[in-house]
Design brief:
Blueprint (H helix, E strand, L loop, with lengths): L1 H33 L1 H6 L9 H21 L11 H25 L7 H32 L4 E6 L3 H10 L5 E6 L4 H10 L3 E7 L8 H10 L3 E5 L2 H4 L4 E4 L6 E4 L7 H35 L5 E7 L5 E7 L6 H7 L21 H8 L8 H6 L3 E3 L4 E2 H5 L14 E3 L12 H13 L3 H17 L5
Parallel strand pairs: 1-2, 1-3, 3-4, 9-11
Antiparallel strand pairs: 5-6, 7-8, 7-10
């Protein structure tokens, strides 16, 4: 029953995707060849082809795209993705699918398809697939709340890897999570046999040698449940673990840092392009912001502070000023206390912040001053935050790995709770980022940064 439900869910999304792809290219054909306003700017010099030609092509395109989504994008696994992750998955699938269409039309020259229609279909497919998927997820969430029973997932163990799994499972509206510890193993056997909608079980590797665990896992296999083991290695290192078979033995290999060589070149090119685009678009708002800062309190527009950056080198980090001119000396005189553990100072209602500064901080406009650091090569758009000297001195040894990449204006912990996170969680998210970096991760963080900033949560 559980397997059937997941297959029906995957089938529903696949049918939706196929229909949306058809609608996207139908709309692209209509806009390209049947819209008078569009034809006024882009006339169809070679005439209007028959829609049947495109329809015949879609009979091959739609199944191929769905196969790409299933195999390459893993979009029919039955797990709900966050909106930003969903958008990235759709974009990847559509890009690869469109490249296959272009290759197919190049090889099969009996018919010539409009490149402009394909370009319109590309963007229309992304918009329709993403919108329809988010709508379906919203409706399914409501159904799970009222009509459809949730599937149950059991997690056995404790530690950072268990916490990471629980955090991911909380995002699945159709999933109910039950957590059991080492002392709960005797009663688990009955729970597994009586739970009607149990889907899978996660077990921490530390518990595999516990008495009764082997019998428990055997019962799970008899019930047809998926069993997934959480390696304790994740407690020591959060990077991706791969299997090394060079000795013809299943040996785990720790993945090295992903930000070096050509990958660094890609990231640096991205930083420069986006930074220059932001400066070009927001130059006038930045001038207005500068004027407000100067009129509100005495001092300059920018605040420059010495920070620790790449390879623990010090540099001047620039931000739009949000505090009074003598804020640094007031920190010791006023005996202010940080609400967050660890060496990082953060205070709600800091009396040193100016009236305009409170508004600037709420929406993180002060961080735009660091675009100058990005252009100078001292910082990146995305990465671990550059630390002040006092914070850097208090770092544990395992956190020093964060200095092996350029610090960033925004990063993984900024879109995962901002200042409301504990100091240790911030450090771990920074290390996870530098060990698992990809262009897709950078784009996802940028997409998530805007709503987080606009909400103003966790900014003080």
């Amino acid at each position: 029953m559980k397997s059937l439900r997941r297959r029906l869910l995957a089938l529903g999304f696949a049918v939706n995707d196929g229909f949306m792809i058809y609608i996207a290219f139908k709309a692209a054909y209509g806009l390209r060849f049947e819209c008078p306003a569009f034809l006024r700017f882009f006339p169809a010099d070679k005439g209007t082809p028959d829609w049947g030609l495109y329809q015949d092509g879609l009979r091959a395109v739609i199944p191929v795209w769905l196969l790409l989504f299933a195999l390459w994008g893993r979009q029919y696994t039955g797990r709900f993705l966050e909106a930003s992750e969903e958008f990235m998955a759709v974009c990847k699938g559509v890009v690869l699918g469109t490249l296959l269409i272009v290759a197919g039309t190049f090889l099969y020259r009996e018919y010539e398809y409009s490149r402009l229609a394909m370009a319109i279909g590309f963007f229309a497919s992304i918009a329709l697939l993403f919108t329809s998927r988010e709508t379906l997820k919203f409706l399914l969430m409501r159904l799970h709340e009222r009509l459809i029973p949730q599937e149950t997932v059991i997690v056995i163990g404790e530690g950072k890897s268990v916490e990471a799994v629980l955090d991911r499972l909380k995002r699945q509206p159709h999933t109910r999570t039950l957590v059991f510890g080492k002392n709960d193993l005797p009663g688990l056997k009955k729970k597994i046999s009586t739970e009607r909608h149990l889907r899978e079980i996660f077990v921490h590797s530390r518990l595999l040698s516990e008495e009764g665990m082997e019998d428990l896992l055997a019962d799970c296999e008899e019930e047809g449940l998926e069993i997934k083991v959480l390696p304790g290695l994740l407690e020591m290192r959060m990077g991706e673990v791969t299997v090394d078979d060079s000795l013809r033995l299943p040996i785990l290999r720790l993945k090295p840092l992903s930000l070096h060589g050509f990958r660094y070149f890609v990231k640096r090119s991205f930083d420069l392009t986006v930074s220059l685009a932001i400066l070009a678009v927001l130059l006038v708002p930045f001038l207005i912001l500068s004027l407000l800062i100067v009129l509100d309190s005495r001092g300059g527009v920018f605040f420059a502070q010495e920070r620790v950056g790449f390879k623990e080198k010090r540099f001047k980090c620039f931000k739009f000023r949000t505090m009074h001119k003598n804020a640094e000396s007031l920190l010791g005189e006023m005996k202010l206390e940080s609400f967050r553990g660890g060496p990082a100072f953060k205070m709600k209602g800091d009396p040193r912040v100016t009236r305009v500064g409170k508004w600037i901080r709420k929406f993180s406009f002060d961080e735009f001053g660091q675009l100058w650091n990005v252009l100078k090569g001292e910082m990146s758009l995305i990465g671990p935050r550059p630390q002040v000297l006092a914070e850097a001195k208090g770092n544990p040894d395992w956190a020093r790995k964060r200095y092996r990449v350029l610090p960033g204006i925004t990063g993984l912990w900024q879109v995962s709770g901002r200042a409301d996170l504990s100091y240790e969680d911030m450090m771990r998210l920074d290390i996870y980022y530098l060990e698992n970096w990809s262009p897709g991760m950078d784009l996802k963080i940028l997409l998530k940064t805007l709503p987080v900033v606009l909400a103003g949560k966790g900014a003080y």
